[in-house]
Structure to design on (70 residues):
């Protein structure tokens, strides 16, 4: 996925507003509550929580698509 400034703004706004995000990584869809974006070496990653409370990490270059739910 091409991470344009608008895409990153949308993801950051979802974190601030507490919105759920649907994302696709390697053909698997996830619906998560994003909590933060952090840098890990040379790669930024999205940290999110699932509905079951599991904490997951998604390197931004591995995310194929995402959408924000209000």
């Amino acid at each position: 996925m091409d991470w344009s400034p608008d895409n990153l703004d949308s993801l950051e706004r979802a974190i601030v507003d507490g919105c759920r995000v649907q994302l696709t990584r390697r053909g698997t869809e996830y619906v998560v509550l994003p909590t933060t974006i952090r840098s890990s070496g040379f790669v930024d990653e999205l940290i999110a929580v699932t509905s079951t409370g599991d904490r997951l990490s998604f390197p931004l270059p591995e995310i194929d698509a995402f959408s924000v739910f209000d």
Summary: The helical segments are 5-17. The chain has one helix and five strands.
